[in-house]
Amino acid sequence: MYRRQQTSWLREHWVALVMALVFVAALAFGGWGLWQVFAPASGNPQAQIGALRRENGNLRDETEQLRQRIATLTRSDQISRDANRDLQGALADRDEEIAGLRADVAFYERLVGATAQRHGLSVHALKLLQNGPAWHFTGTLTQNLNRGAISEGVLTLSVEGTRGGKLQKLAWTDLRQQASAPGVVYSFKYFQQVEGDIFLPPDVTPAKVTVRLQPRSGAAIEQSFTWAEALRGQSAAE
Q1: Is the dihedral of CA 111, 117, 118, 123 positive or negative?
Q2: What residues form the membrane-spanning segments (predicted)?
Q3: What DSSP letter does each residue of 142-181 carry, written as one string?
Q4: Residue 109: helix, strand or coil by DSSP?
Q5: Cys staple from 223: which of 55, 99, 123, 212, with CB 3.0 to 4.6 Å?
């Protein structure tokens, strides 16, 4: 009788223990499930989205920094290019100025220097520059044969070229578009620059321009330049 009671008690306690273990296991499993849901792991989509958002934010910041750096470098490069261009332009202007001064010195030495060769009235250079429908000319006249003497007279131009495949010569009156156009007066001791305007018909292709100096006394003097030489302002001595 006692053995039966003891066996029954053990069975009841064993059943209770098993049920308790099952209950505890159920609680543990349920807790693990909740943790999986509310505590994102490394493979959880929410964690991945958060990580991607943080990474995207970092990339945006880095991209903006790179853009600002590129803008700064581009601006710096542009400033350097502008400064270099200005410097090159200034050097070119200085070289041109020096070349002009050297040409002037050589001109004056040839004209009035101690070893200057004596020559009579002549056209040292002729320069043509287009100004709208007109051509502006500048002629440099010189003489050092009679030092101290005044050279006076009148300058006129004539142009030779082609029109419609035929040779064409335009006199001073044609170039000035006046039947009785007066020449340009000159008066100097050693040199003088005289200026004026001429007009070419649009269908004429010029090839040569001739300067005619008619002194107040004495024979006329003519000196020719190719049209290309006149456009460059080339000296007759070059």
Answers
A1: negative
A2: 12-35
A3: E--SSTTPPEEEEEEEEEEEEETTEEEEE-HHHHHT-TT-
A4: helix
A5: 123
Residue 186 lies in a domain: yes
* 139 within 8 A of 193, measured Cβ to Cβ: yes
Q: How many domains does the chain have?
A: 2
What is each CA distance from 111 to 114, 139, 164, 215, in whole angstroms? Answer: 9, 16, 43, 20
Q: Give pLDDT < 50 ranges for the chain.
A: 237-238
Domain of residue 15: give its range. Answer: 2-39
Pick from 120, 148, 117, 137: nearest CA to 215: 120
Same domain, 127 and 228: yes
pLDDT confidence of residue 37: 54
195 vs 200: CA distance, rounded Å: 17
Q: What is the residue type of 151?
A: S
In a domain, 67, yes or no: no
Write down the pLDDT at residue 194: 95
